[in-house]
Amino acid sequence: MTSSVPQPSTSKESVEQSSTDRDLPLIRVRGLHQYFGENHVLRGIDLDVYRGETLCLLGTSGGGKTVLTKHMLGLMQPAEGSIEIDGIEIAHMRERHLGPVRKKLGVMFQNGALFDSMSVAQNIAFPLIESGVKDSQELDRRIAEVLEIVHLSGQEEKMPSSLSGGMKKRVALARAIVDHPACVCYDEPHAGLDPITAASIDSLIKCLQTDYGITNIVITHEMRSVFRIADRIIFMKDGQIHWQGKPDAFRACDDPTIQAFIQDTD
Ligand SMILES: Nc1ncnc2c1ncn2[C@@H]1O[C@H](COP(=O)(O)OP(=O)(O)OP(=O)(O)O)[C@@H](O)[C@H]1O
């Protein structure tokens, strides 16, 4: 981690960034290729993710959204190409050096991926303990802080099995942000939610961006949510970026694949 990079913070008194830091994309992907056997699943991806934006990643099924996101999280190494997180090249970084980079990136998996045998507090504490926080008062304070952000104050002792689908997603979100990431990736955060609960997740995603400066990357098929939260849209097809731009331009775009996608998923 470079010393010039300010620590992302879930505190509103966030650290002033230098203009150089602000100008540098948080994530820069260049010439990214990936294969599974004969299947060429990423075919030359060039992508910048700008600091403090909400980027929605859309596309046809099997288009490569999840595989691309796994590369940006440092969970997969590319066959070819470059991935920079905060100016640090991670494409072929050894596992033991990836820890500080991964700390900048939170992830909310599709089904929440909570540990069923652990309480809400234990689930949220997990990444903190992994990154070396041991003091129980510090753990309690940070758990309470993020539970307040996701509107679940006082739910520390609940078990996942007693939570609704929307509550589980909010606990998963609390866990994703508890270690103060600069960016959170969401894999289908609206899946299985009713429209009102989906809208409440959208409010939280936007709140993290506007109040806490978090950069959001959201994989979703939920077009109502996309038009509520996206600053920018990337549309993937067959392992390539088929289209990118602003939501209004996306809606007005006459590309037949995109029009069919909007109509099918709206
Ligand atoms: N672990 C894997 N082993 C082999 N092939 C894989 C693996 N993961 C993904 N693929 C393949 O990579 C391609 C891209 O998959 P990916 O999951 O990124 O698509 P996606 O855009 O996220 O699709 P969806 O919207 O359906 O979730 C697909 O052809 C998929 O079958």
Give a verbal description of the structure.
With 266 residues, the chain is α/β, with parallel strands linked by helices. The chain has a single domain, classed as P-loop containing nucleotide triphosphate hydrolases (Rossmann fold, 3-Layer(aba) Sandwich). The chain is built from 10 helices and 10 strands. The strands form 2 sheets. It has a 6-stranded mixed β-sheet, sandwiched between helices. A hairpin with a 2-residue loop joins β4 (80-85) and β5. The longest helix has 18 residues, at 195-212. The termini are far apart. The structure holds adenosine-5'-triphosphate (ATP). Adenosine-5'-triphosphate binds at residues 36, 39, 41, 59, 61-67.
List the helices and strands and how they pair.
Layout: H1 19-23, E1 27-36, E2 39-49, E3 54-59, H2 65-72, E4 80-85, E5 88-89, H3 99-102, E6 105-108, H4 120-130, H5 136-149, H6 165-177, E7 183-187, H7 195-212, E8 215-219, H8 223-229, E9 232-237, E10 240-245, H9 247-252, H10 256-265
Helix pairs in contact: 4-5, 4-6, 5-6
Bound molecules: adenosine-5'-triphosphate.
